[in-house]
Design a protein that fits this description.
CATH superfamily: 23S rRNA-intervening sequence
Number of domains: 1
Number of strands: 0
Distance between the termini: 32 Å
Order of helices and strands: HHHH
CATH architecture: Up-down Bundle
Amino acid sequence: MGIAELCYRSTRYFPREELFGEVAQIRRAAASVPANIAEGHGRESRGEFVQFLRIAQGSLKELETHVLLCQRVGLSNREDVRLILDRCETLGKMLRALIRSLQAKGKA
């Protein structure tokens, strides 16, 4: 949720013509990460949870791509990008560890 909040704040002052472009893409991808984690947690099985965690990982990578693109075309400042990407890296590591842990429990 923290990454999504950062993304909403960092896109607040993007140009109006990007409202349905990069702003929408970044916000959608950022909101998708915690939404998929939550949806997977509410599922009936460990396998379904892992599947939704993997979808969250994909959304996280999509978010990173949009954030980097915005920096490259001058829509985002370097500090916002660094902060978001640092948080994405941390969350990505957490998701990978959780997936490995859940998979190991399934084999035991």
